[in-house]
Amino acid sequence: MKSSSFNVCSPNKAFTERLSN
Prior knowledge:
By secondary structure, this protein is mainly α. It is built from 2 helices and no strands.
């Protein structure tokens, strides 16, 4: 999962970080 690219598209960084973990 490309969290880097997804993080930019997603406004909720905390949520994306949790998915990345």
